[in-house]
Amino acid sequence: MSETPSPQHTALSLAVSGVPVLPLRQGKVPFGNCRTCAGNACGGRPNMKIPGPCRCPGVCHAWAAATTDPAVIVSPSWVAAWRRAVCVGYHPGGAGLTVVDLDDADAIAWARDALPATRVVPTTRGEHWVYRGAMASRNAVRPGVDIKSTMAYARWLGPGTGAMAALPDAVRALAVKEPSPARPAPHAVAVPASAGGEECPHRTPTYLERGIAMAEQHITEARSAIHATVYRTFLAVLSVHGRCGCLTDTHVARLFTAAQAKGETPRHCTDAWTNARTRLGL
After folding, report:
1. CA distances from 125 to 28, 100, 108, 118 (A)
2. I need a labelling partner for 82 at 20 to 30 A (CA). Which of 27, 74, 138, 220 fits?
3. How far is 17 from 189, CA to CA, in rounded Å?
4. Angle subtended at Cα 122 by Cα 116 and Cα 126, rounded to the nearest 5 degrees
5. 14-44: b or e for each residue (b if 16 or more CB lie within 10 Å)?
6. Residue 220 and residue 230: Cα distance in Å, rounded?
């Protein structure tokens, strides 16, 4: 009888095939950040699109630690983590994949009726349905169903069975959160003025114009992972300007135009904008 490969051995095999991997500790969760990286004080990792690349050699920043570099996987700090690891995690979006995580029998029955057949990986309680293509991740899209793709991790449970299908619109639609009737439509960005009625510090025309122009350029120069790039860019713009009332429909239209020039549909632009607003609580 052959021995079960160690998590590190499995990780190296996956990395060679282009799947970004990371060790998961007890509880099937990533290792916590080291003291240097606590609270993201280091500035994050480059693939998190946060300025100030992290130089920490450890397994920090959860899904963003995932790598395909064998030298990193066998480095001393990672070897120490592998000794404590209980399984291998991977970043589906980094591999150009989306995992529909079905937690129970009811969720599986729903998927068989609602989604195209694709590769299936059995889990402890349910199944992972794996599609070719990346998108924004979102938990609890319906009872017992999570979506794990960009900026998320999934547990590696084997290659699964069945032919992998292209990511369908039916799955993308699951991640779209319907706007509350009490909130403005996704394209409207009017928000309350800053507390105390003071002039918004972001309304300097040059400051705002430079920010929008940089966002347009970031989208335009993207060569891959367009969906993820558009979402992260929208998120970055909203994190700076979304609460002060300085964004106008004209600014948003410029971002949407840049995204559509890269192949995004108007609906996907609206979805990405809505998801970014939701994540920031706008």
Report:
1. 14, 14, 10, 19
2. 138
3. 42
4. 80
5. bbeeebbbbbbbeeeebbebeeebeeeebeb
6. 10
**CA 69 – CA 22 distance, rounded (Å):** 11
Q: How far apart are CA 201 and CA 207, in angstroms?
A: 9
pLDDT along the chain (282 residues), means of 10: 79 96 94 84 65 76 92 95 96 95 96 96 96 92 93 95 96 74 43 40 64 83 80 84 75 85 81 82 76
Distance of CA 33 to the CA centre of its chain: 19
What secondary structure letter does DSSP report for 179? P
Question: In 10 A of CB 9, how many CB atoms?
Answer: 14
Res 191: pLDDT = 38
Contact 128, 176 (CB under 8 A): no
48-60 CB burial, b ≥16 within 10 A, e <16: bbbeeebebebbb
**Which residues are within 8 A (CB) of 120 and not within 5 positions of it... i.e. 6 or more apart?**
127, 128, 129, 130, 160, 161, 162
Amino acid identity, position 19: V
**pTM, two decimal places:** 0.63
pLDDT for 218: 83
Two structure tokens written together for 254: 């410029």
Quick one: which of 58, 37, 38, 61 has its CA closest to 49?
A: 61
**Residue 202 φ/ψ, nearest 5 degrees:** -95, 0
Using CA of residue 120, residue 121, residue 127, residue 131, what is the dihedral sign?
negative
**Alpha helix positions (H), 165-225:** 169-174, 205-220
Residue entry with tokens 């729903």: 110
**Hey, which residues does 142 pair with through a beta bridge?**
145
Provide the residue type at 199 as one letter: E
Max CA distance (Å), the chain: 73
Which residues are registered as beta bridge partners of 100?
129, 147
